[in-house]
Amino acid sequence: MTVKVFDLKCNYGHIFEGWFSSSDEFNNQRSKKIIECPFCASSEITKLVSAPYVNTHSGSDVTNKTKTDSLSDKTNIANTQINIIKGIRKILKEAEDVGSNFADVARKIHDGDAEKRSIKGTVTKEEHKSLQEEGIEVLSIPEFLEDPSSMH
């Protein structure tokens, strides 16, 4: 299966990557508000313009160097993404799961009424928005980033 990778941006300016089977699939999911920003859960998403590489130089040395540089860049990006996912999984593994009480516990920690610690759990879109408006940093993390060995 062919996958299209698009750079996406939410209405709050967060930039992230989305993988789709086609541009039509992206447009379909966006119109149904299925796509959400992993940072703030906003479903107001736009696709950023990305230009294809155009080789304006002649000669095989330039072409081969460009291909090598491009491969090296892609490898560096892939390694960075792997390290980020590993870091997120470590944080999630060490965080206390407070389930659906996340908003209440986050507020208590923020207000100094509870011990400061890493927590994870679930919130509704309304709770997420309310926490952000109160200045409480909340990060939405897709389930696929959970460590598969720790999932039930």
Automatic annotation (TrEMBL):
| One Pfam family, short name | DUF1178
Q: Which organism is it from?
A: Candidatus Kinetoplastidibacterium galati TCC219
Protein name (Swiss-Prot/TrEMBL)? DUF1178 family protein
Organismal lineage: Bacteria, Pseudomonadati, Pseudomonadota, Betaproteobacteria, Candidatus Kinetoplastidibacterium
Q: Return the InterPro entries for the record.
A: DUF1178 (IPR009562)
Q: Where is the composition biased (Basic and acidic residues)?
A: 114-132
Superkingdom assignment: Bacteria
Region (Disordered) residue ranges read 114-135
